[in-house]
Amino acid sequence: MKSSVIVFPGSNCDRDIAVALEKMQFKNQMVWHKETNLPKSDLIVIPGGFSYGDYLRSGAIAGKSKIIGEVIKAANSGCLVLGICNGFQILTETGLLKGTLLRNRDLKFINKDIHIKVINNKTNFSLKYKKNQVLKMNIAHNEGNYFTNPKHLEELEKNNLIAFKYCDEKGNINNQSNPNGAINNIAGIYNSKKNILGMMPHPERMVDKIISNTDGVNLFSSLLN
């Protein structure tokens, strides 16, 4: 399976996701943001980091870069697209995903391991997980507070477009298990066709027991299958 990782000035998780993809036997290419042609890809990843230093607004400048036009075309034609952390923010800026990522509830940068619950395990990104499975993931963001309007929130819930929700280690979803104030504890969402996933936690950091755990492996193995 062929993957492409889009790299922006300020990306700091591009090599992490490349290592994870290659470990899982993806044939990966790194694509600089100034490119105007996208390699033939089964999966496009927009990695985490601080594209353009998060000036103006997180993901706002990256969302106008040259390569993004090609990403949008590929996404609209059904290509799988994964946006992680800043990548999620960029996807909302492009309109490929609805909603926005606001400043964290406590107005502080958060970098810690948290728990998320698998809400929908019937997509190309989640088939290897069990429904309601609790995963331990890492987050590192200042603007991870997902927000959307009531109509779209109802659509997300009704059409099973919520990928993950923040929870505690026992799977309880409540305000105490919500690290950033995200509406309805939302940690990741799909578009209506479920070929695009945006998520704030970092699955690429959870693929090796030596440095963390392997809770992110099944996301990549789901994509392979």
Walkthrough of the structure:
The strands form 2 sheets. Strands 2-1-3-4-11-10-9-6-7 form a 9-stranded mixed β-sheet, sandwiched between helices. It starts with a strand and ends with a helix. The longest helix is centred in the N-terminal third of the chain and has 11 residues, at 66-76. The protein has helices at 14-23, 66-76, 86-94, 150-158, 217-224; strands at 2-7, 27-32, 43-46, 80-84, 100-102, 110-118, 134-141, 145-147, 162-167, 186-190, 196-199. The chain is globular and about 45 Å long. The chain has 5 helices and 11 strands; from the N terminus they run βαββαβαββββαβββα. A hairpin with a 5-residue loop joins strand 10 and strand 11 (196-199).
Summary of the model, kept short:
By secondary structure, the chain is of the alpha/beta class. The chain has helices at 14-23, 66-76, 86-94, 150-158, 217-224; strands spanning 2-7, 27-32, 43-46, 80-84, 100-102, 110-118, 134-141, 145-147, 162-167, 186-190, 196-199. It has a single domain (2-224), classed as Class I glutamine amidotransferase (GATase) domain (Rossmann fold, 3-Layer(aba) Sandwich), CATH 3.40.50.880.
